[in-house]
From TrEMBL:
This is Ras GTPase-activating protein-binding protein 1. One of its GO terms (cellular component) is cytoplasmic ribonucleoprotein granule. It comes from Heterocephalus glaber (Naked mole rat). It is found in: Cytoplasm, Cytoplasmic ribonucleoprotein granule. Residues 1-92 form the NTF2 domain. GO terms for molecular function: mRNA binding. Keywords: RNA-binding. Pfam families: NTF2. Its main location: cytoplasm.
Length: 111
């Protein structure tokens, strides 16, 4: 199951650095910045650290999207105290719950 674009049609997935770069550059971003709202960090069982970052992305000084990003900073196995980003996940929060419809449920009548 794929993501939906703003028209409700299935969006094309992109893979790899070149396709991702091409997709980002096609979005016509100008004067972009990020406002971080929350950062959570927790140690994992093998001394790595998992982070969750939530905030807003702005384009041309207008708030566009709420986002959530999760990633793990993992220690390199060389013992050099260097870390690398592992399992980097980025989601627009509006897409997570897009199309979610709540319906009012009638209370059952007592007999």
């Amino acid at each position: 199951m794929g993501e939906l674009d703003s028209n409700g049609k299935t969006a094309d997935a992109v893979y790899g650095q070149k396709e991702t770069h091409r997709k980002v550059m096609s979005q016509n971003f100008t004067n972009c910045h990020t406002k971080i709202g929350h950062v959570n960090a927790h140690a994992t069982l093998n001394d790595d650290v998992v982070f969750q970052v939530m905030g807003l992305l702005f384009n041309d000084n207008c708030a566009l999207w709420r986002f959530m990003r999760m990633f793990v900073l993992a220690l390199e196995s060389s013992g050099s105290n260097k870390v690398y980003v592992h399992n980097d996940i980025f989601r627009y929060q509006d897409e997570v719950f897009g199309g979610f419809v709540t319906e009012e449920v009638d209370e059952p009548e007592e007999r």
